[in-house]
Design a protein that fits this description.
With 206 residues, the chain is mainly beta. It has a domain of 117 residues: lipopolysaccharide transport protein A fold. The protein has three helices and twelve strands. The protein has a six-stranded antiparallel beta barrel with strand order 3-4-7-8-6-5. Strand 7 and strand 8 form a beta hairpin. The chain is globular. The chain starts with 5 loop residues before the first helix and ends in a 6-residue tail after the last helix.
Amino acid sequence: MRRLSSRIIFILALAAGVALIFANTSPRLDLDKVLDISRLQPEHLPELLQRIRDFHRIVTRDGKKLLEVSAKEASYFRDEKAIEILEPKLLFFDDGEQVAAISGGRGYLLMDGNEVEWVDLSGNVEFQLATFVIRADKIAYARDGDEVVTEGATLVSSPQIELKGRNLTFSLSAKTLVVDGDVDMMLTPSEQESVTDAASTPGGSS
């Protein structure tokens, strides 16, 4: 493997339909503002009202599927708008076709009628986007801004790229991916690239 410059990573990401950007400061979703974590401590947990197995919700727009949320279990609590979900999975669609997916161990979901306002996932969370797989301890999705945000150490991998960084923001609408800092990148050439490099090297086969 060989180290890859930010410029080459950017070009490869564009080829995959995703603009990859590195910035030390960028607008990010503040998870503490989205979800009052203090209320989720055991001594603050409200009364359980309902528990649903095989939770499933679909969000559509103009008759086409936009977002699908499923979970092994969903728990509703008194005086709480957020729904606790176990083994959740989010599927994102564009023009009716699935384009991305997020899965995790557990999380919290806020809905406004049939609309998903935000989802906060934790526990070995994985975000699959095109040929990229993004892994982090915490990932949140917010409809306001149409963004997916990771918190803390994040690993981005594909057949050609492995990138480590902190605090990643992906815009679903703009298709831009921003990594705040601590970026470490590696490139694994494909077999075709290796053959091309060998052929262009003096003494290589033609």
